[in-house]
């Protein structure tokens, strides 16, 4: 800030300074009040309420709301269905995160080149992202029916395809596949943007030094896109933990409990069994799992993410 | 500068704002039912039909009620929700403090809604009204909706299940006409599965289509004729692994995989589309059938334990958490009195002796002929037993559905699955 030459303005008196400080404080509070209120009302308050509900036996239809302490959590961890659900959720998240990250990175690498018609391929892979999940699930429901298009196609080669969505052995794999095809385009676009920001002179230098394409990717490209890889890992993990729509539309958590992921189990307990207190306890457990996984990924970033070391 | 390093005044102000917000939210969450407002009120009815013709009749009855009670009721709204999500929609509304005044109730939820106090007792209002005429009600049809002399809902739709048959598929497979089998006393599940297997093998289409495993109580339309019951009559003993149940589900599994008589989960054969030979359902299905294939609607076949007619019910009741329970009970009484029940009978078979006639039901099921209405609706309706109901149905329904999905797998250990199921759900009995 420049200063006028000559005499400085007279310093404000003590009372004026205090008044100005109050005005500044009021202005500051006014400016942060909106976001703080929003975070409290739409973020913190629902979480606090869920925490409170999880300590109660709440059946809305019967008008019952009784404090039961940690009983809901005790009941939950003693439930074999919940234990199965945790295992299914783990398998689902690992399956989705690994396949979606690797396939998205492969696609982005393949499509990260200047050539005629490349936009068409990029659009084709991204298209499922903008398709409504309900429509996507319905199409796959027909494709994967035991007498559907996939098995009809396999039958041409003498292969008897399984009952994909109704077989305990294949249902979870099928849902992972459906979720993969639906979401891989989004991660592909993120990776594509990251790949295009890799300085070409570094890659050219590597090429001049005789590095193979794989070596250039491993030593130059991948380290530089690790911030995006970390973001994709966090977003995909959180998304996979909260998956609900395809399970609800395609398998209802079955057959048996083969696809009964924790977010669907929460819905079943709260809305079908009408046990909101127990459902809230599941919500708290899910929240803690998401929080721990996200914090874990975040704290490990210094070990492998570029510019964080 | 974070909140924790801010000046004390700023910190106090921020904490005060947060406290006020939290207190406001807590107060709004804890506030009780508002006082009954003065003046005419709006009554709201939750239901699962969005059919315009249904709503036209409902609104006609509601308008007449409003005209008779202008100082008490200003409007009556019928809010439709999809059937699949209907119980959940009801729970969500009640938990949000927006309970409808009246609601349709599924047969399967009847006992738990009554036991848990979800529905209000309306017997005083109904029994005192000569126009409602309780003596006209078919004996036994209010059983699932009553407790200790109280009446908690009116089963506005009471009808027996029947078997839809695709005659074209049977003919293509060289099979007998079901009417001939009924006449000769050979209309049995053994014969039906034999015919269904033949249809599947010779036409490539489906045999017996089971609606969905999620509505597993409707399997009572078959297991009742095997002498199987999911629980004892008093609801205190689970019987999922009884010898009769094991025999029944073993039969189901064999007819899915050793033969192709029952459509397997995951197969897309559908009776309405003409690609399944048999389907058990209600008269309402006839409305969605056209002339693209020849079909019939016949009584349920006999099983090893004889022939058992089974009825489905849907009822309308007043929610105990309604803000206007007395007005709602008055409307329920008016909506279902003898005169208005005749209007409802245009769509739903009523549990009234005066309305269980060929003329009345013909109007509701225009695609069914006299023989189908008399032989599959009216006569079986006299002896039909209700679907099983239990006070904790919602709590174990999905556990049962999950187990039944495992039973419908090739080489399933039916007995083991049923023993596991029994162990899982026993906590809800006794």
Explain this structure to me?
By secondary structure, chain A is an all-alpha fold. Chain A has 2 domains: 14-53; 71-304, MetI-like fold, CATH 1.10.3720. Helices cover 71% and strands 3% of the residues of chain A. Chain A has helices at residues 14-53, 71-77, 80-111, 118-130, 133-143, 149-155, 171-196, 200-208, 213-241, 245-251, 262-272, 276-299, 301-304; strands at 56-59, 64-67. Chain A has a two-stranded antiparallel ribbon with strand order 1-2. In chain A, strand 1 and strand 2 (64-67) form a beta hairpin. Chain B is of the alpha/beta class and 430 residues long. Chain B has helices at 8-30, 52-68, 86-95, 110-115, 123-128, 167-172, 178-183, 189-203, 220-223, 243-257, 325-335, 338-344, 358-364, 370-383, 393-407, 414-425, and strands at residues 41-47, 73-80, 102-106, 146-147, 150-151, 154-160, 162-166, 206-209, 276-281, 295-298, 310-318, 385-386. In chain B, helix 15 packs antiparallel against helix 16 (414-425). The radius of gyration of chain B is 25 Å and the shape is globular. Chain B starts with 7 loop residues before the first helix and ends in a 5-residue tail after the last helix. Classes of the chains: A mainly alpha (309), B alpha/beta (430). The interface between A and B is large, with 46 and 44 residues.
Nutshell version of this structure?
The complex is a heterodimer of chains A (309) and B (430). Chain A is mostly helical and 309 residues long. Chain A is 71% helix and 3% strand.
List key phrases describing it:
heterodimer; A: 309 residues; mainly alpha; MetI-like fold; two-stranded antiparallel ribbon; 13 helices; B: 430 residues; alpha/beta; D-Maltodextrin-Binding Protein, domain 2; 2 domains; six-stranded mixed sheet; four-stranded mixed sheet; 16 helices; globular
């Amino acid at each position: 800030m420049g200063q006028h030459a000559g005499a400085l303005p007279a310093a404000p008196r003590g009372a004026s300074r205090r008044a100005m400080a109050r005005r500044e404080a009021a202005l500051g509070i006014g400016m942060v009040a909106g976001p703080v209120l929003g975070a409290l009302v739409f973020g913190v308050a629902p979480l606090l309420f869920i925490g409170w509900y999880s300590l109660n036996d709440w059946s809305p239809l019967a008008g019952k709301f009784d404090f039961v302490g940690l009983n809901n959590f005790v009941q939950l961890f003693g439930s074999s269905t919940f234990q199965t659900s945790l295992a299914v959720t783990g398998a689902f998240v690992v399956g989705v995160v690994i396949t979606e990250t690797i396939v998205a990175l492969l696609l982005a690498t393949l499509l990260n080149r200047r050539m005629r018609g490349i936009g068409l391929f990029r659009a084709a892979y991204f298209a499922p992202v903008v398709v409504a999940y309900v429509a996507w699930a319905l199409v796959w429901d027909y494709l994967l029916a035991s007498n559907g298009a996939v098995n009809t196609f396999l039958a041409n080669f003498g292969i008897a395809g399984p009952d994909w969505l109704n077989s305990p052995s294949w249902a979870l794999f099928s849902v992972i596949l459906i979720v993969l095809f639906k979401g891989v385009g989004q991660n592909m676009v993120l990776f594509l943007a990251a790949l295009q920001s890799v300085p070409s002179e570094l890659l050219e230098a590597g090429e001049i030094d005789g590095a193979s394409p794989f070596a250039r990717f491993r030593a130059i490209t991948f380290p530089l896109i690790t911030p995006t890889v970390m973001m994709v890992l966090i977003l995909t993990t959180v998304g996979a933990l909260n998956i609900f729509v395809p399970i609800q539309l395609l398998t209802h958590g079955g057959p048996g409990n083969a696809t009964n992921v924790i977010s669907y189990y929460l819905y079943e307990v709260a809305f079908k069994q009408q046990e909101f207190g127990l459902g809230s306890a599941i919500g708290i457990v899910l929240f803690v799992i998401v929080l721990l996984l996200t914090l874990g990924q975040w704290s490990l970033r210094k070990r492998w993410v570029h510019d964080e070391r | 500068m974070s909140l924790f390093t801010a000046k004390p005044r700023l910190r106090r102000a921020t904490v005060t704002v947060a406290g006020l917000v939290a207190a406001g939210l807590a107060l709004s969450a804890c506030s009780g039912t508002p006082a009954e407002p003065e003046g005419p009120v709006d009554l709201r009815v939750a239901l699962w039909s969005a059919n315009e013709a249904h709503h036209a009749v409902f609104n006609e009855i509601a308008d007449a009620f409003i005209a008779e009670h202008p100082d008490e009721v200003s409007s009556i709204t019928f809010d439709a929700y999809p059937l699949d999500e209907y119980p959940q929609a009801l729970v969500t509304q009640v938990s949000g403090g927006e309970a409808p005044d009246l609601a349709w109730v599924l047969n399967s939820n009847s006992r738990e809604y009554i036991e848990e106090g979800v529905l209000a007792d309306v017997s005083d209002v109904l029994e005192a009204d000569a126009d409602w005429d309780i003596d006209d009600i078919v004996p036994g049809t209010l059983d699932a909706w009553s407790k200790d002399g109280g009446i908690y809902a009116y089963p506005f739709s009471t009808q027996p299940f029947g078997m839809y048959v695709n005659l074209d598929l049977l003919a293509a497979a060289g099979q007998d006409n079901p009417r001939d089998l009924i006449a000769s006393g050979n209309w049995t599940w053994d014969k039906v599965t034999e015919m269904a297997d033949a249809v599947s093998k010779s036409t490539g289409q489906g045999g017996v289509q089971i609606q969905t495993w999620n509505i597993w109580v409707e399997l009572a339309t078959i297991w009742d004729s095997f002498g199987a019951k999911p629980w004892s009559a008093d609801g205190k003993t689970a019987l999922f692994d009884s010898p009769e149940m094991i025999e029944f589900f073993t039969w189901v599994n064999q007819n899915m995989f050793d033969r192709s008589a029952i459509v397997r989960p995951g197969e897309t054969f559908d009776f309405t589309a003409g690609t399944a030979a048999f389907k058990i359902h209600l008269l309402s299905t006839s409305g969605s059938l056209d002339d693209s294939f020849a079909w019939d609607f016949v009584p349920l076949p006999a099983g090893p334990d004889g022939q058992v007619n089974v009825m489905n019910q849907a009822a309308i009741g007043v929610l105990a958490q309604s803000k206007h329970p007395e007005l709602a009970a008055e409307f329920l009484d008016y909506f279902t009195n003898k005169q208005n029940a005749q209007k409802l009978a245009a769509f739903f078979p009523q549990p009234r002796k005066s309305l269980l006639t060929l003329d009345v039901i013909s109007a509701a099921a225009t695609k069914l002929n006299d023989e189908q209405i008399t032989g599959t609706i009216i006569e079986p309706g006299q002896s039909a037993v209700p679907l099983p109901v239990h006070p904790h149905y919602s709590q174990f329904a999905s556990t049962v559905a999950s187990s039944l999905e495992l039973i419908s797998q090739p080489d399933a250990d039916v007995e083991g699955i049923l023993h596991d199921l029994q162990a899982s759900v026993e906590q809800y009995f006794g």
